[in-house]
Amino acid sequence: MPPVGFGLWKIPREDTADAVVEAIRAGYRHFDSAADYGNEAESGEGFARAIAEGLVTRDELWITSKLWNTFHAPEHVEEAARKSLADLQIECFDLYLIHFPIALEYVPIEERYPPEWLFNPEADELEMRPAKVPLYQTWHAMEALAQKGLTNRIGVCNYNSALIHDLMTYASLKPSHLQVESHPYLTQEKLIRCAKDYGMEVTAFSPLGAQSYFELNMADAQESLLGTAPVMVAAQAHGKTPAQVLLKWGVQRGNSVIPKTTKLERMRENLAIDDFELSAVEMAAIDALNQDRRFNDPGVFAEVAFGRFHPIYD
User: Fold this and answer.
1) 28 is catalytic
2) Are 7 and 260 in contact (CB under 8 A)?
3) Residue 177, SS3?
4) Does the N-terminal or the C-terminal CB of the chain have fewer CB atoms within 10 Å?
5) How confident is the model at residue 212 (pLDDT cuts 50, 70, 90)?
6) Can you give the pLDDT at residue 140?
7) Which DSSP symbol is given to 223?
8) Domain range for residue 121?
9) Is the pLDDT of residue 259 over 90?
10) pLDDT score for 50
11) Are strands 201-205 and 177-181 parallel, antiparallel or unpaired?
């Protein structure tokens, strides 16, 4: 997995295909997608166009996607995977993740796709409806995808350490990757160490912190990491931007990172972090920014948006 990937969350559908092509042209080879992002068909158009134009071959790309919450029941896992594969115009994922350790009632693809969080968004009383599906059943269905050649690797997203310990007791095919929110305000040191002790690679989403959440009213402008003193000092010392310092911090911790942008200059900037190294002192100063501040928390946004308190982190 290339250490700096291209995140496809929140890219408007009408911009996605062009963004994928331009990202490939800029040098990206790792793309992070999900059924819930609602733009996999357009991402697939971008991949197909880039391959047809000779910019890249399929073998040079790393494409990750994720199983949505409404498809956790074993009989629906392959259905969901095949839908994403068809939309992305590929035959096999490089990595397929369980998106959240949250099972919701099934919504047929032909009825509404992506199903998102609400069981029936047209109902008078909006409802996020949990399903009684144990995670071990979902995982065994994920293993079957790998056995059928639909994915090269399987893993989990948004799991805590307790769920990882539990997963390792029943997994016949061990998870290869963990994807979680991580940035200097949420360093997740114990969780990341736990995953790596089990041999899992870690991908940090939202590596720039609050930036992805301003437009969703899930973060305040003063929570931006870009203007914090340790980041600014390191940026000035290395002649880099604060965003580049934050991405380098994530990569130097041994993680991959998946920033998102539709701006060509930002695409290039985010990739240009191989020509400098943060010192131990700089790394420690940035580490010290930790506040355990989580921006993407179902225990907060589910209650606000869907009227259901549904925490998965303590």
Assistant:
1) no
2) yes
3) strand
4) C
5) confident
6) 98
7) G
8) 6-219+255-260+293-306
9) yes
10) 98
11) parallel
Bridge partners (DSSP) listed for residue 130 = 104
CA atoms of 314 and 304, how far apart (whole Å):
18
- 276 lies in some domain: no
- Please give the model's pTM, rounded to 2 decimal places: 0.97
d(CA 179, CA 184): 16
Tokens, residue 304:
């606000």
Closest CA to 27 of 43, 4, 51, 11: 4
In a domain, 242, yes or no: no
Return the closest-CA partner of residue 31 out of 2, 6, 65, 59: 6
Cis amide bond preceding 114, omega within 30: yes
Give residues with Cβ within 8 angstroms of 308, minimum separation 6.
127, 128, 302
> Cα(273)–Cα(53) distance, rounded to whole angstroms?
27
- Residue 54 maps to a domain: yes
Rounded Cα gap, residues 221 and 199, in angstroms: 37
Domains in the chain, number: 1
Cα separation, 291 vs 226, whole angstroms? 15
Smallest Cα–Cα separation from 184: which of 93, 278, 91, 309? Answer: 278
Gap between the Cα atoms of 217 and 207, Å rounded: 18
Give the 3-state secondary structure of residue 33: coil
In a domain, 88, yes or no: yes
Other beta carbons less than 10 A from residue 300's beta carbon: 16
Confidence bin at 126 (pLDDT 50/70/90): confident
Average pLDDT (211-236) is: 94
Q: Average pLDDT, whole number, for the chain?
A: 97
Residue 43: name the closest of 77, 72, 66 by CA: 66
Q: Indicate which CATH number applies to the domain containing 23.
A: 3.20.20.100
Name the band, by pLDDT with cuts 50, 70 and 90, for residue 233: very high
For position 255, what pLDDT does the model report?
Answer: 98
Q: Which residue has the tokens 């929570």?
A: 223
Answer for the pair 263, 11: CB distance below 8 angstroms, yes or no: no
